[in-house]
Each structure stands twice: as structure tokens, then as C-alpha cells.
Amino acid sequence: MAAITASMVNTLREKTGVGMMKCKEALTACDGDLEKAVEYLRKQGADVALKRADKDAKEGSVFVGSNDTKAYAFVLTCETDFVAKGDDFIKLGADIAEALKASKASTVEETLSLPVGSITVKDRISEVLAKIGEKIEISKFAVLPIGANEVVAYYSHSDAHSVGKIGTVVKLAFEGNPNGGKEAVQAVAKTIALHVTMSNPVALTESELKPELIEKEKGIALEQVKNEGKTKAEFLDRAVEGRLKKALKQLCLLEQSFYTDDKKTVSNILAEEQKKIGLSSLSVAQFVRFEKGS
After folding, report:
1. Cys bridge to 159: 113, 165, 232, 254, which one at CB 3.0-4.6 A?
2. What is the 3-state secondary structure (H, E, C) of 136-161?
3. Which pLDDT band, with edges at 50, 70 and 90, does 11 fall under?
């Protein structure tokens, strides 16, 4: 059995918000597997924040930005927190972001070929790698083109060391002539970007969720209901469906409770803002949320 360290317990506590003793119990029961421990806690009925347990131990930083035609987000990874906070690594990320912003690149491969001074992005990464002795790579990447009736907003959430911990980009589509111009729509996009940063949705709506994720959540809901022991067998399916519906809402952006007002959903907020700024329609066209370590 794997040794359960204080660091492992603290990582699980930060991910779930559950007490230290419960986290240690879960890790012990799951032989130190973090993702399985999250499921264990949820099956036991613990009040666990529905955060995706898809991060590994990589360090790094998230970079986001935009110009008139596109927004972008990428994760630049390294091996240690010490390097992630260093000037060489931060400057490298800024150089890549500037090259991307000034180009038409839409993939990692195209980005690696972009010029940074007299060399390419790929060579610039190799240059820093040779200096600091750690593996560096672009691990996640997205470019969001901006159409005629679209606006984007981005938000970067830093950790205690001012390293980009989370980067979010939201693109809104609209119809009509907004009171206050595009800036009014961009203000709404910024609000939604803040919500996405805080609430970590997986998809816009339930129809976009992967079937395997829904099955996983259904299994967790079944275990929760069984462990509570309050539901008669003939009502079990109904109880599971109710629990599942609630869980899936927390994964879907438009159905999530808004982060500053839990009496309203994101859809409610969009409808209110649409009316307020005089649009015939206002919707989320796309969103991206990257977190360092992913």
C-alpha cells in the first residue's frame, strides 16, 4: 500500500474542500490514487466541489490574450514551481504570447514555427530549456476566432506568486445594436469569464457532456443514495435521477448557479443582460478554461 503523505492529504483537501481526516481516510482506502479518492468521498456523501480531477503534477503557467480577430489561451508547463516563478520562464511565455498574437497561427505546430526575433518559438523554448535544465512544453492550446457579431473577454487568475494559475476566455455572440456598443457586450463577457474561472464548467449544456462522464456521475449518485439508506427500493431509480440531474447542472455552464447570486443561473444572467443592453439575442458561443498543472 502506498504511503499517504501530508502533501497528498493537503492536495485532496484543496481539491475537494473536505476535512483532513476524511481526505486521509479516502486516500488510504484508494491506495493514494487522487482521482479515485475524490470519487470515494462523493460516494460517501461528502460535500465535494465538482472539480475535474484531470490534473497531473506538472507546474507552469497559463497565458491568455486577444487582438481584434482572435483570442488565445495556452498552458506552458515545466517541472518545478521554482522554474515557473522564474523570470526566464515568464519571459518565454510572454514571447510566445506576443508571437501568437501577431500571427494567424491556430495550432501548436504553427505556433512553434513562429518567429521570436531571429529564431522560432521552438528554438526559443529549447534555448530556455538548455539554460534551466527542465522540460518545457505547450501542453494545452486554444485559439478562438472573433466574428462580426462576436466579442471575447479573458481573465487570468494568479496564485500567491503572481504566476498564471487559471486562464479563461469567453466568446459571446449577439444580434442587434447594443446600448453602449460592443464594450457593453464585452463587459458581460468579462462577467461570464469570471464565473467560468470560479465555477469550472465542463460544457455549455448537458447535450455536450460525454456519455462516459454522465455514466460516471450516475454511478456516484447511485452509491450516494444507497449509502444514505433512506430511499425505498421502489423509489431508488427516481432518487438517483434526481441526484444525477443536480450533479450534471453543476457541470454545465448555462445551468450553473451564478457565482455571485445562487438564485440565478448563467442563462438568467444572459437574459437579463440581453434585455438591459437592448439586444435581440445574446449567447455564449465558446469558452475555454485552462489551469496550470493540466
Report:
1. 165
2. CEEEEEEEEECCCCEEEEEEEEECCC
3. confident
Contact of 261 with 234, CB cutoff 8 Å = no
Distance CA 89, CA 40 (A): 37
Do 121 and 30 sit in the same domain of this protein? Answer: no
Cell of 64: 491568455
Beta bridge partners of 257: 265
**What one-character-per-residue DSSP string does 51-109 give?**
------S-EEEEEEEE-SSEEEEEEEEES-HHHHTSHHHHHHHHHHHHHHHTS---SHH
- Around Cβ 225, how many Cβ atoms within 10 Å? 21
Q: If phi over 0 gives left and psi between -120 and 50 gives alpha, with beta otherwise, what is residue 133? A: left
Are 137 and 78 contained in the same domain?
yes
CB atoms near residue 269 (< 10 Å): 20
Q: Which three cell numbers stand for residue 91?
A: 519571459
Give the model confidence (pLDDT) of 168-219 as tens digits: 999 999 999 999 999 999 999 999 999 999 999 999 999 999 999 999 989 9
